[in-house]
Amino acid sequence: MTSYFLVLATLVFFLYHYFTKTFNHWKSKNVKGPRPIPLFGNILQVALRNKPNGIFFRELYQQYPKEKVIGIYQMTSPTLIIRDLDLVKQIMIKNFDMFPDRGTYFSKDGLGENIFHSDADTWKFLRYQFTSLYTTCKIKNMFHRLADRGDKFVNCIDNMISKQPEQDTYQLLLKYTVTTSLLTTLGWDVDTFNDKTEWYHTLDQNLNNSPLNEINQLFSGILTKLNLSVLAKKTRRICLKIAKACVEQETVSNNNISNVRELLWHLKHEGKAITDEAEPNIEITDALLAGQIWVFYTASYLNNNVTLTYALYYLACNPDVQEKLREEVDKVIKNNGNGFTYEIVKEMKYLGRVFDETLRLHPTTHGLVRCASEDVKLEGLDFTIKKGTNVVVPSYAIHRDEKYYSEPERFNPDRFLAEYDAERHPCAYIAFGIGRRSCLGSQLARIQFGICIAKLMQRFKVETTQNTCSSLTFDNWHMLLKPKEAIHLKFVARDK
Fold this sequence. Notes:
Elements: H1 2-20, H2 44-47, H3 53-63, E1 69-74, E2 77-82, H4 85-94, H5 108-112, H6 120-131, H7 136-161, E3 166-168, H8 169-186, H9 201-204, H10 212-218, H11 222-225, H12 233-247, H13 260-270, H14 286-317, H15 319-335, H16 342-347, H17 349-361, E4 368-371, E5 390-393, H18 395-399, H19 418-423, H20 442-459, E6 460-464, E7 488-493
Parallel strand pairs: 2-5
Antiparallel strand pairs: 1-2, 3-7, 4-5, 6-7
């Protein structure tokens, strides 16, 4: 019995030592932060899914208003929260080569070799390939097809509200965002307006934060070592199936590549890049192709769906803003002979500000994460950030800081008038990231958003109901800052 307790005590001692051995890291550097607890560090509520990361980061941001940085522990991993925007600029732009990765790595077979999560060399190779798909010329060329989906969407709503004016906005918008995302990503024409199976819900329902994220923070690098993935099996299976279908399509020439599917075909069959940049030694596997399918498709439809949902919520809650937007849409379209083109949507400046204000209040990501590739000494800090340390730029918190935005909780698109933009720190608005690893599809996202909102404003008024939530909460499990509760809104047809 004595030996049993001795073994148990020894085991407890070693476990306690392992789970706390890093907890002097920030104190030794005189970096302020909350006191950690064994095993969980500072993220107990996040790990238990009682609180989303974005809200956790904001609470820390507010607790230490005079600090440039805050030192925390994600499980046992020392992590630095960046509050100072000049430091943000150094990390994301000036010293990008010292912080090139996002710091989350998992199995390549599990789609971990995607443009979002991949290491710096793979990311650089992939980014050069995909940049050509998001030029203004390419977006203009697909505009009329996107506008056609917008017309079909509002017609679909017209039919639906004749029976049920009140709709679950997020689920309703999937019909638009999924069809436009499949079109722009894969060139596939999928009729989500009449598809009764709604197969796309499978992917949408499997985008939760995996507990393996916390395991990786506890045992750094274990996911790659054990070939584990943070993505659900169903998600991986669907993306692999799509990737294989992509490479079985007909031949496309370099000059005609217009979407992700055609570019993946070229990489697989030609075995080389379409740019003149130096190519790293990367094997073009089915898993690598499937990883790009996952990123571009889910990022396209999911980010758009969440942003459109929040936008309609705020327009319904602020009828004066909605009316001002509607007047602009009507005026611009009328002044252009009732046409609807790329240039006409770009002319709707207030619509663009509604887009920016929506993403200010609700950037879809919890925060921007970068990993130090070497020991780094930043200007303004009196300590060195050690190699392998993750730094987090809390975009949700920065966007709601009254230092950069007066009345930060109020929905006010006019805060993005050019006169205010010029006064604002360049890193105070980072909805699409900033620097070389920022979002490739930001301009396409604006157009997809603009088409949908403009078409809706032409045809409907959006109103709150007794079932509309009075305040927004977030899904603690989801990988994005997605609304937890269904957002019910009423769509009322305008007088023709």
